[in-house]
Specification:
single chain; 424 residues; alpha/beta; Rossmann fold; five-stranded parallel sheet; five-stranded mixed barrel; 12 helices; binds iron/sulfur cluster
């Protein structure tokens, strides 16, 4: 039997798909690279923007149009609109987020205790998500109240996975020859705050460093207010990847207030400069929303100025889209679409420039690269793509299939998107 997984949205959705994949594999399923070849299709949906919700629907429709009659849907969009999801052709089941962790058991009618008896050899998922890094969900839900955010409505209250369970899953990745684990969560920095007594993500990281020997541990997106400066001391251990993705959302204090973000620009500034003091190669990337209700030209300029001041290694720009049920959806001051588009263009250009400024100084240096995915070229060599610890994207051509290995690599050039390296 064969199963195809598709996902839209955040790394948490990707982490969940990886776990589903390993559980289906443990029951003898083969993972396919397209829905056409599969007996079952699982789609993990997203509703973070109107475009993500539309993309979710389109992925389900496309599988149904191609004759799939066993489509299982889960995730934030189907949680918010379960009837719409269930009515799409081919959908046999909508699994709510609160039951998501048991989706494979529900789909296969298997006792969940039968999963994970043996760690399976790590295999990248076929298709566009092919990668060797393992994404691991350690936290779900969020107790904050950012006024634009529909994710917290779809995902519910914050819940953390116990340190022992995280450790168990990391050991399984290590046994399966994994090289890098990416810890993910809806609000990763809130890991442990729901325990009694509460714990901090730093406690989990310290434990993982002490009790595992995985070569690389990376954190996915973190809210800056969850990170005490002392947390950064852990980065004295070079196994922690020097990369933070810190969603800023706005560089204007008044917009942050309307967004009910707990970010202060002073704390954000202090955090990024401390990270760079610990390691000058530290990469800081971010997300910004443009066109939030009432965003004036002056407020947008404050954001531009703050982004220039921080000097990110890259960033994602999201034109604001109103999500029903969120407080921001009821706010006045809709920004005209033409202005939103222009602001998005300005920030995308700025982030591209900052990315180039961050990447260029690495030309000529030697760094460790984990090779993730690749393809065979007509000359029989491999074209491989990989990442450095500080999240630089690197490409190489090699006669050897280097996937899932870490090699010392000399950076020869930069083409504006990736570094071009030679594996040594
Ligand atoms: S921190 Fe804010 S944006 Fe992030 S999930 Fe929680 S409410 Fe949403």
């Amino acid at each position: 039997m064969k199963v195809f997984f598709d996902t839209v949205g955040c790394r948490l959705n990707q982490a969940e798909i990886e776990r589903f994949a390993s559980q289906f594999r443990s029951q003898g399923y083969e993972i396919t690279a397209s829905h056409e070849e599969a007996d079952i299709v699982v789609v993990n949906t997203c509703s973070v923007t109107a475009a993500a919700a539309a993309d979710s629907r389109s992925k389900i429709r496309s599988a149904g149009k191609d004759g799939q009659t066993k489509i299982i849907v889960t995730g934030c969009w189907s949680d918010l609109e379960p009837e719409a999801a269930a009515s799409l052709p081919g959908v046999i089941r909508v699994v709510p987020n609160k039951l998501k962790d048991t989706l494979p058991a529900i789909a296969l009618g298997v006792d969940p205790a039968l999963f994970d008896l043996e760690p399976l050899k790590r295999e990248p998922l076929p298709g566009i998500h092919a990668r060797t890094r393992a994404f691991l969900k350690v936290q779900d839900g969020c107790d904050n109240h950012c006024t634009f955010c529909v994710t917290r409505i779809a995902r519910g209250k914050a819940q953390s996975v116990s340190a022992d369970e995280v450790l168990r899953q990391i050991r399984a990745v290590a046994l399966a020859d994994g090289k890098e684990i990416v810890l993910t969560g809806v609000n990763l920095g809130a890991w442990g705050l729901d325990f009694n007594p509460p714990a901090h993500l730093g406690d989990l990281m310290a434990k993982l460093l002490a009790e595992t020997d995985l070569p690389r541990i990376r954190l996915s997106s973190l809210e800056s207010w969850n990170i005490p400066i002392s947390f950064l001391n852990l980065w004295a251990d070079s196994r922690l990847c020097p990369h933070f993705h810190l969603p800023l959302q706005s560089g204007s204090t008044s917009v942050l207030k309307r967004m009910a973000r707990r970010t202060t620009l002073a704390e954000f500034r202090a955090l990024t400069s401390q990270a760079r003091m610990i390691n000058p190669d530290f990469a800081i990337t971010t997300d910004v929303i443009v066109g939030f209700p009432g965003e004036t030209d002056a407020e947008f300029q404050e954001t531009v100025d703050f982004i220039c001041e921080i000097g990110f290694a890259g960033g994602h720009v999201f034109p604001y889209s109103s999500s029903p049920g969120t407080p921001a959806a009821k706010m006045n001051g809709t920004v005209h679409g033409r202005i939103v588009k222009e602001r998005a263009r300005i920030l995308r250009d700025l982030f591209q420039q900052q990315k180039e400024d961050f990447y260029r100084p690495f030309v000529g240096r030697e760094m460790d690269v984990l090779w993730e995915n690749g393809q065979v070229l007509p000359n029989g060599h491999w074209e491989l793509h990989g990442l450095t610890g500080n999240y630089l994207s690197v490409r190489t051509e090699s006669s050897a299939r280097l996937q899932n290995t870490i090699t010392r690599t000399r950076m020869e050039n930069f083409d504006g998107v990736t570094l071009i390296g030679t594996a040594l």
